[in-house]
Amino acid sequence: MLLGCQLPQDWRPQTESCRAELAEIIVFAKVLALHKDSYSVYNYLPWQYNTDLFYSAEIEMLCDQAWGSMLEVPAGSRFNVTGLGYFPCYSYSVVENNAYYFFLRMDENYNIIPHGVNFQDPIFTDTAENRRMFASLFQFANCSSGTQIETYTPDWEFQEDSRLLCSTVQKALFEEEERVKTLSQKVRSLEKANNHLRDKVRKMKRSIRQVKKESKREALLIKQRHEKEKAVKQTTSKDHLKKPLKKIISNKLKK
Known about the structure:
By secondary structure, this protein is an alpha+beta fold. It is built from 4 helices and 8 strands.
């Protein structure tokens, strides 16, 4: 895996319904044409001059999200979605004349680009399964005439009202994981401090043992020196006693 593809440590996959809650713009649209893109902020591969890898799509909006969308354009509007192609860690690709469900967002330069919520694919093919899924999540509106799409029903509205928001639940899970991670870091920090204290105590005990050994050795040397000095004094005293005795004997012999 490339370095730039490394996901955050706390990354978890999200369902399409959860990601749909966080997407800025959701549209059902048909791809009318594809246009090659030159090097841009979205195209940063070493081979960026191979323009076959990067393109934008001219799309016709068939339906817009009924509420919460940041895109306000009339039905049947045409606009470009840029930032498509093959990138280091992912690819956003579409085929001309096919319809898709798009998660989109507007960047700081007012370009419409794919909104890869949670680092996952934001483009969904027009299948019966995806139609049922998106119709169960929210109501589409502002549809072009003749567009066939699943209808949002009151049963689904009741389901929507009774359902916990995925993003809220996931936020709570992330907060709990963050709390556990913080506690784990504290435990590791305390364990590290405890190990440091153990090492310090171990060194102090070693130093005390060394001091005791040196003290015993010093005491033994002092004792040996004292005994040696005592032996020397005793020898000296004996020598002093012998010398006068010899003088007395020598004087008596002379007389």
